[in-house]
Amino acid sequence: MKKLLLLTAILMAGGTIQAQVRNHVAIPDLDDYLTLKCDFHMHSVFSDGLVWPTVRVDEAIREGLDVIAITEHIEVLRHKDDITASHNRAFDIAAKYAKGTDILVLKGSEITKGMPPGHFNAIFLDDCDALETQDPMDAFAATVEQGGFIFWNHPGWDSQQPDTTLWMPEHTEIYDRGFMQGIEVVNFHSYYPEAHQWAIDRNLTMFGNSDIHHPMQTDFDFARGEHRPMTLVFATEKTPAAIREALDERRTAVWFEDKLIGQEEILREIFEKSVDTINVRKTATRIYITLKNNSDLPFHLVKREQGNPLAYFRQYTIQPHRQHVITIKKTQESTSGRLKYEVTNLLVAPGKGLYCETDI
Amino acid sequence: MKKLLLLTAILMAGGTIQAQVRNHVAIPDLDDYLTLKCDFHMHSVFSDGLVWPTVRVDEAIREGLDVIAITEHIEVLRHKDDITASHNRAFDIAAKYAKGTDILVLKGSEITKGMPPGHFNAIFLDDCDALETQDPMDAFAATVEQGGFIFWNHPGWDSQQPDTTLWMPEHTEIYDRGFMQGIEVVNFHSYYPEAHQWAIDRNLTMFGNSDIHHPMQTDFDFARGEHRPMTLVFATEKTPAAIREALDERRTAVWFEDKLIGQEEILREIFEKSVDTINVRKTATRIYITLKNNSDLPFHLVKREQGNPLAYFRQYTIQPHRQHVITIKKTQESTSGRLKYEVTNLLVAPGKGLYCETDI
Amino acid sequence: MKKLLLLTAILMAGGTIQAQVRNHVAIPDLDDYLTLKCDFHMHSVFSDGLVWPTVRVDEAIREGLDVIAITEHIEVLRHKDDITASHNRAFDIAAKYAKGTDILVLKGSEITKGMPPGHFNAIFLDDCDALETQDPMDAFAATVEQGGFIFWNHPGWDSQQPDTTLWMPEHTEIYDRGFMQGIEVVNFHSYYPEAHQWAIDRNLTMFGNSDIHHPMQTDFDFARGEHRPMTLVFATEKTPAAIREALDERRTAVWFEDKLIGQEEILREIFEKSVDTINVRKTATRIYITLKNNSDLPFHLVKREQGNPLAYFRQYTIQPHRQHVITIKKTQESTSGRLKYEVTNLLVAPGKGLYCETDI
Amino acid sequence: MKKLLLLTAILMAGGTIQAQVRNHVAIPDLDDYLTLKCDFHMHSVFSDGLVWPTVRVDEAIREGLDVIAITEHIEVLRHKDDITASHNRAFDIAAKYAKGTDILVLKGSEITKGMPPGHFNAIFLDDCDALETQDPMDAFAATVEQGGFIFWNHPGWDSQQPDTTLWMPEHTEIYDRGFMQGIEVVNFHSYYPEAHQWAIDRNLTMFGNSDIHHPMQTDFDFARGEHRPMTLVFATEKTPAAIREALDERRTAVWFEDKLIGQEEILREIFEKSVDTINVRKTATRIYITLKNNSDLPFHLVKREQGNPLAYFRQYTIQPHRQHVITIKKTQESTSGRLKYEVTNLLVAPGKGLYCETDI
User: Omega into B309 within 30° of 0, i.e. cis?
Assistant: First the structure.
């Protein structure tokens, strides 16, 4: 379950050498792609965060991430009385620290404007300083000029969207000019169903990011099994180019609490690769299916039919890393049948889980 | 980290099918022997325990044990107004339930007398009922007649040994007649240093058992990392005969809290097999040793020398399942040296840890 | 947070005296009634459970309950080869053990038939043995004759209700004859929305019970903050008569996971008594409301209006035992206003939370 | 158990308002003094720490401290390429943030030299910048000139004291000149018995501090019940003057893991105030003592006599926040007696627990 990592020792006054353990996030790779665990939105003391950039790398190591972007606000420099630096500085510090670890750090910034249009993240940047402009359109243009990738952050943030999550004319303009390639469907502790639907309708790449400002453990209770939201990127390899190609092709999914949000075919492949059928045993009156879930994900199944001669669960949760025996009663004489159910926490659209049929 | 197990489903009124997860206890096998995790002392409702015998099997599955013995008191039948049964009954129920699981159940009983001589466990029995005798010597003789194995339970139990843990003339008689082959060095939450010394002096097989009466989770807080005490048996295979051979040859160790108690050569092999040296890097002024501990055991190291030209830790803990980088400073010009330390939680005698020297 | 309790010491072989800690469930009393925490459905080895009846009392002490009923199946005696006893026996053992503790034990039984009509619990019994009848109607009649109280257990149990949760003609007959006074809206890990609606439509007393068979900690992970489902009974005092009066008057609510299920006026009073307004501070542009939640319950608030000149949260969770500062922005000049929201985890009907308006 | 606190709301991008909960450390006040929970040694990004100074205040709120000092290294400015500021700056930020909270922030610095003499903390400073001197003696003199208080940090740090913990001639000089008023007996995860003895022999005020550099949760696992080391200060009120008076008078104790380290009379008063005797019940053969421990401290009791006609525990742990019933057997006819035991985790000297006698 745990994959360990060589860490540069940090000798601390007070006399200990730090030992870190790297968690392994058990979500399977796909047939054709690696499943990279990514967080493309976070802050350090170089904008309005509260930790040194290296802490974001330590957290990523511990939590089993593959890729992070520290995306300081261009416009919100909360500690500017004490820290004056290039907008590239947090990246430089984190990237140097991450060398030799399993963490890939991408350069990014948060373009931070009032609503409309709100906040946008630009990643795959060469020079963050070029984004310091008055007009957001200029910052977007500077991003695209550098070959950067732009996504809309927390579109349903109630501080900027008090009543409902609205797509405004300004967003249409940004979208039409090619300045919005992705959107956060999840930010921190919030999921935005409207943004989920827009991602589907407008072919936007889906993101789920932590937007963390505090030390991570302050806002996520790992002892209770919580995890930060992650953007799963399905890439041919763990390189910036392959990640960028995956984002351009919209091959992402969002891991949020007990939910996975993404395209049907991807979620189906993850479900099938996560759960092995160990054994099917049939007696005169019952069928016993032994399953083993090798992933960190639970799967919440709800029956989606009536009148099947096989009487089976109406609701059933396959727990992470557990082996289950599902008992099915035959109400008629029959040696086989088909189970129809929805996996309600694999969201292919707002409110719509993954529909499955299984022959037994 | 987790090894899963096929469990017979238990359909419960109220509508769920139970899923169990088997913990894997990460303590390495030896070159020549399997390391079996055993608990040879526990109770169910068939004497003065508070759970059905099958619960002891469920607990053993979850906690990663290999072998258990449910050892009901012959003399203390707390629930006899409601339950009347052969002294073999708890074994029969547990053994039937354990079929097809990873748990091996041995037949045993607790011969329960006042001090002297106190309580003794008899295992590898054919018929527990034969041990229902007035005189403990008769019960011991009946055990030996069946080919059973006898060990003294909780010799330092303060209810029977109020002031100090004493070896009485009666114990000498029992020992001389071949009725005491082993001794509990650990019982429940207590370690008895006197018993540890007696085991060394008199060649007794060392045991550490839970003596559990309540549901296990009532007395051990697994969420805080606690585990029941276990007797590690180093056997050629997981069979009753091989376990018996190991007990006869005194090839056991006791896992208690963060301690391992046993013979020096066995503890040394476990230490060496638990910790891998990943890398040694030498600079002009320092040596960096990267270690990886693959076991559930911490190792508490204390330096046992002065004046070494290599300046290294005075105390150091290698955490379970962690990778550490130990930094050593060269105080003189030298490219190598020797570290001398004691692993204080690997107890080769009361108060005496495992002494090690490592060339680097 | 903790209320402690004098426990009869249990001297255990192996040498410890058990110390138990009683959790205090922080759900406020009402103006006119005590809020008693109750579980009216559980099993021991005297039917098909796996623990001695006293374990149910220990669990209730630890978890902070006030009242339990051990309700053995009349018809399912899984351990009858070893235990033969009156159906009253589990009660007798538990009630004797509970003397002098904070736990009140009620006498009850589970009338266990195929569907229809399924399983029913009878509590407030004098003699459980009288319920051993072939026809469930005879058992119900015997219950009523003794002055007992009857409720339908796990009406949506998928083993008995494979497709949907149905109210059958037999249930109408039982109801019409006065044999069904209550219904389990929650059993173990399941909530039945259909049963919730029936309770509203037919004036049935709502229950939420654990139906526990294993040791409690096997099925509820307390370290992760889980709790067993409880029936909250709003009674004038903690006596059998007062509890019975409350059940007859339908003054109950169900605590399940993070939800409270019950009548609007009761849930409103609990919400208001749980959350104190510490302070309201108004500036030119903002209003800051400081709240303190003194209860174990979270409250999930969702805004239920649009166009309010006060811009406030769209979703907000008031965490248990936390102090929050809610920030409200004035979008127009105004010194006061009204917040409209639903507390979605206080369920007054299936899918319908408690609607609130707050003037500020 | 929890005392809540009004916190200034922090509106975070991404849409949540932070709720914090203040832990209450349950260690009783003395008859004449408040028991203040203090940590006088920690770091932020303004020297070689990894968090913004306000994080230290947030941590102190959550963990229930009363007083902290952020004591940046004068000589180790790890982030000086990005942060240039007065040595007073971290205090200014933290003190401003702490206004209106329960946390009192003291101004301090760490004078950071090679061994000898090693590192020293200066607290109760007016101007940290005055301590930036080449010679440590000048920095000490500047501290005393300001009315500051000086203590020796981590005297047994193995990076500076490779073999044994030595008191060097330089330390005698510092001590004789009045530049060492206190000493860290505990730093981070280490206890130094030599320093403990020196504190006793030389009348030094004892300290136990965290010396934290990372986010606190990275180095202390609160979910497993760990806590940072704290200096308990017994003061007439929670003001800088009263704290200073207590330090001058050596009225401190150190809370480290499960140990309390300090002077006998103080530890005795804490023990007596922590544990209430609820009830003593005597039968013909036994005495039952019901105790209630209202504190966060366990108490490990070991019998310190032989031959008492009362047979009682040889070892016994009174758990935090638990009620225990201790059973004592009368081996002779007697209606009263005296228990003699040592509380081994209340350390009045290295290796020496608090000796107690209790008449019953």
Answer: no
3-state SS class at A259: strand
ipTM at complex level? 0.93
Q: What angle do CA C226, A297, A311 make, to 5 degrees?
A: 85
Contact D15 A158 (CB under 8 A): yes
Cβ-contact D218, D196 below 8 angstroms: no
Residue C332 near chain A (CB below 8 Å): no
Which of B10, B12, B56, B109 is the mutation pick for testing C, counting most C CBs within 10 A?
Answer: B12
**How far apart (Å, rounded) are the C-alpha atoms in residues B246 and B262?**
14
For the residues of D148-201, what is the DSSP string, one character each?
A: -EEEE--TT-TTTSSSS----HHHHHHHHTT---EEEEEETTEE-HHHHHHHHH
| Apex A23 CA angle, A21 and A28, nearest 5 | 155
Checking DSSP bridges between strand B34-39 and strand B230-235, what pairing results, if any? antiparallel
Secondary structure letter of residue D314 according to DSSP: S
CA C60 to chain CA centroid, nearest Å: 13
The bridge status of strand B67-73 relative to strand B34-39 is parallel
User: Angle at which helices C53-63 and C89-98 pack, to 10 degrees?
Assistant: 40
Question: Are residues C229 and C199 in contact, defined by beta-carbon separation less than 8 angstroms?
Answer: no
Judge whether B4 is closer than 8 Å to chain A, CB to CB.
yes
Chain C residues whose CB is inside 8 A of the A225 CB are 224
Residue B93 host element (H or E): helix B89-98
DSSP state of B30: P
Find out whether D152 and D184 touch, Cβ atoms under 8 Å: yes
For chain B, list the contacting chains (3+ Cβ pairs, <8 Å).
A, C, D
**Stated length of chain C:** 360
How many angstroms separate the CA atoms of D247 and D233, rounded? 7
Is the Cβ pair A190, C315 closer than 8 Å? Answer: yes
**E strand or H helix at D152:** strand D149-152
Residue with tokens 């003065």: B48
DSSP H or E stretch at residue B235: strand B230-235
Q: What is the full per-residue pLDDT of chain D (360 aa) written as tens digits?
A: 222 222 223 333 333 334 567 889 999 999 999 999 999 999 999 999 999 999 999 999 999 999 999 999 999 999 999 999 999 999 999 999 999 899 999 999 999 999 999 999 999 999 999 999 999 999 999 999 999 999 999 999 988 888 889 999 999 999 999 999 999 999 999 999 999 999 999 999 999 999 999 999 999 999 889 999 999 999 999 999 999 999 999 999 999 999 999 999 999 999 999 999 999 999 988 999 999 999 999 999 999 988 888 888 888 999 999 888 898 988 777 778 899 999 999 999 999 999 999 998
Residues in chain D: 360
CA-wise closest residue to B7 among B23, B22, B26, B24: B22
Peptide bond into D116 cis (omega under 30): yes
Structure tokens that stand for A122 in this block = 């630009």
Buried b (16+ CB within 10 A) or exposed e, B304-323: eeeebebbbbbbbbbebbbb
| Contact indicator for C140, C146 with CB cutoff of 8 Å | no
CB-based burial label for A89 (10 Å; 0-12, 13-18, 19+): buried
Helices assigned H by DSSP within chain C? 53-63, 89-98, 136-145, 169-176, 193-201, 216-219, 240-248, 264-274
The candidate with the shortest Cα–Cα distance to D35, out of D335, D303, D273, is D273
pTM: 0.89
Give how far the C-alpha of residue C72 lies from the chain's centroid of Cα atoms, to the nearest Å: 19
Spatial distance between the Cα atoms of B315 and B306, rounded to a whole number of angstroms: 13
User: Sign of the C-alpha dihedral, residues A217, A222, A226, A231?
Assistant: positive
Give me the residue label for tokens 């158990």: D1
Q: Are B252 and B230 in contact (CB under 8 A)?
A: no
Q: What are phi and psi of C195, to 5 degrees?
A: -65, -35
Residue (of C183, C176, C123) closest to C157 by Cα position: C183
